[in-house]
Amino acid sequence: MEAFIVEGGYRLEGSLRVDSAKNAVLPLMAASVLTPEEVTLTDVPDIADRHSMAEILSILGAKVTPTGRGLTISSGGLHNWEMPDRLSKRIRSSIFLLGPILSRFRRATVTYPGGCEIGLRPIDLHLNGLRCLGVSIHEEGGLIHCDGTRMHAGEIHFDYPSVGATENVMMAAALLPGETVIHNAAREPEIVDLQQMMNRMGAKVRGAGGQTICVEGVKALHGVTWKPMPDRIVAGTLLAAAAITGGEIELTDAPVSDMVAVNAKLREMGCVLHEEPHRLTLTAPRRLTAFAQLQTQPHPGFPTDMQVQMLALLCASEGTGVVVENVFENRFTHAGDLNRMGAHILCSGRTAVVRGVETLYGARVTARDLRGGAALVLAGLRAQGVTQVDRADLIDRGYDHLEKQLCALGGKVTRIEA
Ligand code: UD1
User: Fold this and answer.
1) Per-residue model confidence as pLDDT tens digits over 195-241
2) Which of 10, 15, 102, 162 could form a disulfide with 148 if both were Cys (CB 3.0 to 4.6 A apart)?
């Protein structure tokens, strides 16, 4: 197992280009199954989830070839509609393949997907959405068998705007005759990216980014070359890293218009941000000021994937702040480790109250999920002494060599075999 060693006390300075978004790349890879022609994604970060998804696609019979910084997927030879159990448990995004596989074979067998342990994360909304499209589903021996022989366009109302379920249904409906309407759809920017790529493949999808998405089925989709959108969570994490060190950084290729909620909180903490369409700069004060409260919400609310990084910032701020996690029920699992570094966090259910301290101290801590692991690295950048963050593999799921990105900005972070 690998770990990150973080030497605290170095101010981050400099400029970095933001990678493509993990949460865009994974559904885009799944969408490649909708056509037998080649789909090329230029600029795909070297993250573990991308490799897991590529492995699943290969087992299903697709050919995945690295091309420069990107990859090409050719699903012409797809022959398998059973998702591999071991890999599905490794990444939750494996469930995105359900819609495209059904659309291709009219049947699919899946297991309950895995991913970060940040809550129950059921898939009932995915399955209910597919039922509205005529898929009949039965569970047996831990397997979910989906029969799509009677699939048709339909009308769906999600009880909750799930990102993955919205994307799954969009893809499942792309080749069904007639119009499918998704009400109370999730509005995340990555769904807009998926819509845009699907439309470039010949699909007729409109409304992504709003609460109602309409998919007019077409006969076939064709190949495409597509550059996935930049990662607003990686960008936010890098800004937070600069902020906690009192630093000054520039991000290029940043999805600035999708970062309004995060940037507003950083401003509340005393940072000065300058925004241009695809570039932003942040200058942080020597010590941040605590914001009064932060509540996670579906987009355009504050993203749950940035919550724990902001919790880390709050730990080293002046004042007291409250964080409420509304999206997942188990996303304060790093509070204990942050407290071991000298923080004062009190958690009760979905609420954390943080009293900022002047000094955090280096300690040996453990990542328990992707974003929480990144937050521990951020705390380590501020801490006095050395912090060892175990389970670097969890951080690698969504950050392309975080240690290199932070070193490029003047941080002292190395990777070791622990
Ligand atoms: C996606 C993101 C993830 C982000 C999350 C919320 C990807 C690859 N991942 O995950 O990084 O944290 O959106 O912004 O894009 N739920 C149900 N039943 C379902 C589906 C979801 O109850 O069938 C619940 C979940 O348990 C959770 C909430 O809905 O409490 C949000 O989940 P969802 O929007 O589906 O997140 P993901 O698509 O899994």
Assistant:
1) 999 999 999 999 999 999 999 999 999 999 999 999 999 999 999 99
2) 102
Looking at the DSSP bridge assignments, the partners of residue 210 are 208
Pocket flag, ligand 1, residue 96 (CB < 6 Å): no
How far out from the chain centre does Cα 318 lie?
30
Determine the residue type at 33: V
Average pLDDT in the chain: 95
Q: What residues have CB less than 8 Å from 339, skipping those under 6 apart?
A: 345
What is the distance between the alpha carbons of residues 113 and 91, in angstroms, rounded to a whole number? Answer: 7
C-alpha to C-alpha distance for 286 and 12, rounded to whole angstroms: 12
Question: Do residues 312 and 338 touch, judged by C-beta distance below 8 A?
Answer: yes
163-173 vs 98-105: helix crossing angle, rounded to 10? 20
| Active-site annotation holds for 116 | yes
C-beta of 163 in contact with ligand 1 (< 6 A): yes
The pTM of this model reads 0.96
Ligand 1: residue of 163, 167, 306 to mutate (most ligand atoms within 8 A of CB) is 163
How many whole angstroms from 164 Cα to the centroid of ligand 1?
6
Contact 366, 393 (CB under 8 A): no
- 65, 72 Cβ separation under 8 angstroms: yes
Mean per-residue pLDDT, 161-181: 97
Would you state the structure tokens that stand for residue 352, as one six-digit string? 């954390």
pLDDT band at 119 (very low <50, low <70, confident <90, very high): low
Residue with tokens 């966090």: 345
22, 110, 121, 296: residue to mutate for ligand 1 pocket, most atoms within 8 A of CB:
121
Looking at residue 287, the DSSP 8-state letter turns out to be S
Compute the distance between CA of residue 237 and CA of residue 162 in angstroms, rounded to an integer: 23
* Rounded Cα gap, residues 96 and 344, in angstroms: 39
Is the CB of 304 within 6 Å of ligand 1? Answer: yes
